[in-house]
Amino acid sequence: MGLRGSVDTLHANNNGNFLKEVELLAKFDPVLKEHVRRIDSGANHTTYLGKTIQNELIACISDTILRTIVVQIKESKYFSLILDCTPDVSYQEQMSVVIRTVDLKNTPEIREHFLGFLLAHESTGLGLSTLILRRLEELNIPFEDCRGQSYDNGANMKGRNKGTQARLLKKNPRALYVPCAAHTLNLMVADSAKGSVDATNFFGVVQKLYTLFAAASQRWAILKDHVDLTVKAWSETRWESRINSIEPLRYHTVKVREALLEVREKTNDPMIRIEAQSLAEEIGSFRFQICTVVWYDILSKINTVSKLLQSVNMQLDIAVNLINKTKASLQTYRATGFVDAQTTAKELCENMNVEAVLKEKRLRSTKKHFTYEAADEVVITAMKRLEIGFFNVVVDCSIQSLEDRFKSMGEVKDKFGVLLNFHKLDEELLKEQCAQLGKTLTCGEEADIDWRELAMEMQSLPELPKEVTTALELLIHIHERGLCELYPNLWVALRIACTLPVTVATAERSFSKLKLIKTFLRSSMCQERLSGMAMISINHQIGSQISYDEVINDFASRKARREQF
Question: What is the pLDDT of residues 470-487, one digit of tens each?
Answer without folding.
Answer: 889 999 999 988 888 889
